[in-house]
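Our consortium's second objective concerns turning raw sequence data into structural hypotheses that experimental partners can test. To show how far this objective has progressed, the report includes one record in full. It was chosen at random from the queue rather than selected for favorable results. The single chain below, 207 residues long, was entered without modification.
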Amino acid sequence: MAPTLLRKMSQAFRELADTVNQDKDMEVKPFAQACSYITDLMRHLGPLSKFAVDDFAPRVADLEAASRSFRSLKSMMRGNIEQNNVRSPGSHTRNLLLVKRVIELVNILFQQIVATNYDDKGDNALPSQGLAAYLAVFSQYHGTGLKATVEFFKPLIPSKAQFLVILEERDEASIVAQMRIIVEAATRITQYIDNLFVAKDLGFDWA
């Protein structure tokens, strides 16, 4: 049986986290590949997906393109610093920061799903948990118009039962197990990226 999307994603994220554990530089190419699975995941979020994918996918594609010039995230950021274009629209470093925030969103969403044991009612329903994760990460960066758009699409986000079928996972235990792996890995990955920004004295509240 071919691995499901969530299994591919959990393996890619775990391998990235392993580089952190081994005190190695995280490479751009596998990072971009891992993030491409988030793009695929977004496509299963109903009408909201086009809005999300149109913003996120080009940033991941930019990082994939950057991997042809830079081996590691650290060297990629150094290249932008040397060119004095870190904060320029479309810079690799700016896209890395914005992609990191989406990883944080996925992390928070999956944490909620794992913590509530895949319960699909009331505040534990996927649309409610998805909105909560979005607000936790992006509330300070997005204006009222964008927040209203996300709120508008909230009722159209699939339920967890539908999500289970869409992702072709066997059962709730299977999907929670993969999400737990991603949560543990994503926490290490985003901390690693935060440390890179701090080490270069760039901060991460500007994009």
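The partners drew two points from this record. The domain at 5-197 is CATH 1.10.3520.10 (Glycolipid transfer protein, GLTP). The mean pLDDT is 94. Both points have been shared with the crystallography group to help prioritize constructs.
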